[in-house]
Write a structure and sequence with these properties.
Helices cover 12% and strands 30% of the residues. The protein has 206 residues and is mainly β.
């Protein structure tokens, strides 16, 4: 494991073996760490593979979505809209194709590196306030598909610094999907300024 992770408690593989509807809210306030940067996860969405028409894996395995069918704790990175990358933590038993989309981070460390990656005109609250933005801020791209978030083989892990998930998480339908957008599988840290501009907000729950 890389020395840059030494002061962080990297989440074990067992953390990711559960249902993404449980893993997703549990990821809130954890840290994405690596490449001289750290960001607190403040927004996520769950996707349920072949049971979920909004999932890339709904119709089964392909070369593009192969990582979703692999071991839990891997990073599934995909290219979208011909210009952006998005990153997901693979969950559940191997072969089930479930994942949690990392939708937004609150910058914690390495902010200057994030500014360079995102551009000088971007204000800090928008450095990683969306799934494509956070990939840009961390330099996550196609080569990171399949990265192991437990071993840090691509200099990326998710870690716990002792900050618990919020006692009250906001919850809504998912954003930017054509199917099953209404299912309440999006969670975020209520009041955090780094949350994306998704408009499908319906409730705050315990």
């Amino acid at each position: 494991m890389k020395s840059s992770f030494a002061r962080h408690r990297v989440l074990p593989r067992s953390f990711y073996k559960g249902d993404p509807r449980e893993v997703g809210p549990a990821l809130l306030n954890k840290l994405l760490v690596g490449r001289g940067r750290a960001g607190r996860i403040v927004e996520v969405e769950a996707y349920l593979g072949t049971e979920d028409p909004a999932s890339h894996a709904y119709h089964g395995p392909t070369r593009r979505n192969a990582t979703m069918f692999g071991p839990p704790g891997r990073l599934y990175v995909y290219f979208t809209y011909g210009m952006h990358f998005c990153a997901n933590a693979v969950c559940g038993p191997e072969g089930i194709s479930r994942a949690v989309l990392l939708r937004a981070l609150a910058p914690v460390a390495g902010i200057e590196l994030m500014r360079v990656a995102r551009g000088p005109a971007v204000v800090d609250r928008h450095l990683s306030s969306g799934p494509a933005k956070l990939c840009q801020a961390f330099g996550i791209g196609r080569a990171d598909d399949g990265a192991d978030l437990v071993t840090g083989d691509k200099d990326l892990v998710i870690a716990d610094d002792g900050t618990p998930p919020p006692a009250r998480s906001a919850i809504s339908g998912r954003v930017g999907v054509a199917s099953a957008a209404e299912v309440p599988w999006r969670w975020w840290v209520e009041g955090d300024l780094n949350v994306s501009r998704g408009t499908s907000r319906v409730a705050v729950v315990l």
